[in-house]
Amino acid sequence: MDVLIARERASAAEIQSAIPDPPGYSAVRATLRVMEEKGYVRHEQLGASYVYLPKTAPEKARRSEFRHMFQTFFNGSPEKVMAALLDSKPSAEELDRIAAMIASARRKGL
Length: 110
Hints:
Helices cover 63% and strands 11% of the residues.
């Protein structure tokens, strides 16, 4: 999706070539088909091939996929998400911003 958003339109082959250590062409096509079924992308026929375009705003797609990942991998637990994020060794500045977000959420009663 990142490649498609950056380019605004691309064929499956163009998307595949822009991915580091890319999956096979069939896997890229299958992923695009699933993304189209979910309403994230659409395609236009250009000659014999399809050109894909983002259909959903990037932020909306991120939120939707995060909700799915949140439930699937973290059983809906914010604590498990934070533990995974902290394993990535955030910088002191990132930890300060996270702490500020938590403080703000507490003040708002979230």
